[in-house]
UniProtKB/TrEMBL annotation:
Residues 38-386 form the Aminotransferase class I/classII large domain. This is Aminotransferase. InterPro entries: Aminotransferase_I/II_large, AspAT/PAT-like, NHTrfase_class1_PyrdxlP-BS, PyrdxlP-dep_Trfase, PyrdxlP-dep_Trfase_major. It is an enzyme of class 2 (transferase). Its cofactor is pyridoxal 5'-phosphate.
């Protein structure tokens, strides 16, 4: 006897929340297709093309037939080059055998979480923070234990707040520097205190450094300068301009790398081969010179958008020193939460931004993330449009 009943989908999978920003992006693309002018300040992707030396290396690899599997941990020469990069740029001793190349930072995060955690465990995360932390943890049956962080703390987790939130079920703590959505940095002393806390509790410290290199008015450093028992996640996506190439890495203790390599064999087989050969050119002097020029451009954009938003009444405490985001409190006269604000602003004046709801619940209704991943003239146009939208909000509120 046949039944028309469909197989059950896993409740854990069905509970995964969508990116609100992706819904807004889809709507923005629809409006563009209809002929509307849309300014994209919502998606965290550099607008610069992948540097030419990287493209040239990719073309050469394809012509040479470099399209077959590599070891699951990545090309040995790429792991060695990453090891040298840490030594040359940061003075950190990280052996190639402590580095595993992954399908994007997302692949690295999955491997780290699965290597460290069991169903029923808890992980301390910032609220607000990158939304995929929560979703991946829940897929694994692990509970994200969100800790509210404030603008006064640079939206970064302190050891004192971690201590207050700790339970015996906590097995790890994850922070990001520079952070998404705030663009703030974790200070060396603050990191040292978190490391001491994690060691005292016998839990893992995971540091997401995916925006490393995109640092302004501050010293760019890695947690690996301070310790070799941390788990550091990174990627070629942001600083190196290789988002669609889907290539990242994790640096971790050797014993953990051995475990993660076995998992990678089963989950991914290997990272993208042409992308790995291309990434070898990411460290050439010509590439790094270009990337530093782009970093200077991002700093100019940050300054323009920061001063412009403040002039319009948005609240941004301090001066975000990294990534390419500003996490702004809505002006008082808006009279709506961030979800409605972002949705309505897109429809009314064609400016797309990300509502705070994507990044957690603490203060989410009062915050919007703006990405300065477009040229200065476009940022100026966006500020003009936002000004007009705020004027509409004031007029409607006065009625």
């Amino acid at each position: 006897m046949h039944t028309t009943e469909q197989p059950r989908l896993a409740p854990r999978a069905c509970a995964v929340e969508p990116f609100h920003v992706m819904r807004l992006l889809e709507r923005a693309k629809t409006l563009e297709a209809e002929g509307r002018s849309i300014i994209h300040l919502e998606v965290g992707e550099p607008d610069f093309p992948t540097p030419e030396p990287i493209l040239a290396a990719a073309r050469a690899a394809l012509e040479d037939g470099a399209v077959h599997y590599t070891p699951a941990a990545g090309l040995p020469q790429l792991r060695e080059r990453l090891s040298r990069y840490y030594a040359e740029r940061y003075g950190a001793r990280v052996g190639a055998d402590r580095i595993l190349v992954t399908p994007g930072a997302s692949g690295a995060i999955q491997l780290v979480f699965q290597a460290l955690l069991e169903p029923g465990d808890e992980v301390l995360i910032c609220d607000p923070s990158y939304p995929c932390y929560r979703q991946v943890l829940r897929l694994l049956g692990v509970e994200p234990r969100a800790v509210a962080v404030e603008a006064a703390d640079d939206f970064q987790l302190s050891a004192a707040r971690a201590e207050a939130a700790w339970t015996p079920r906590v097995r790890a703590l994850i922070v990001a520097s520079p952070a998404n959505p705030s663009g703030t940095l974790l200070g060396r002393e603050q990191l040292a205190e978190l490391l001491a806390f994690c060691r005292a509790k016998g839990i893992a410290l995971i540091v997401d450094e995916i925006y490393q290199g995109l640092v302004y008015d501050a010293h760019d450093y890695t947690a690996l300068e301070q310790a070799d028992d941390v788990y550091v996640v990174n990627s070629f996506s942001k600083y190196f301009g290789m988002t669609g190439w889907r290539l990242g890495w994790v640096a971790a203790p050797r014993a953990a790398i051995e475990v993660m390599e076995r998992m990678a064999q089963n989950l991914f087989i290997a990272p993208n081969t042409p992308a790995q050969h291309a990434a070898l050119a990411a460290f050439e002097p010509a590439t790094l010179e270009l990337l530093e020029q782009r970093r200077a451009c991002f700093r100019e954009r940050r300054d323009a958008l920061l001063s412009g938003l403040r002039r319009l009444g948005f609240g941004i405490d301090g001066e975000p020193k990294g990534a390419f985001y500003l996490y702004a409190r809505l002006p008082e006269q808006v009279g709506m939460d961030s979800m409605r604000f972002a949705t309505t602003m897109l429809e009314e004046v064609g400016v797309a931004a990300t509502p705070g709801h994507d990044f957690g619940s603490h203060g989410a209704e009062r915050h919007v993330r703006f990405a300065y991943t477009c040229d200065l003239p476009v940022i100026d146009e966006a500020l003009g449009r936002i000004d007009r939208f705020l004027a509409q909000c004031r007029e409607s509120g006065a009625r």
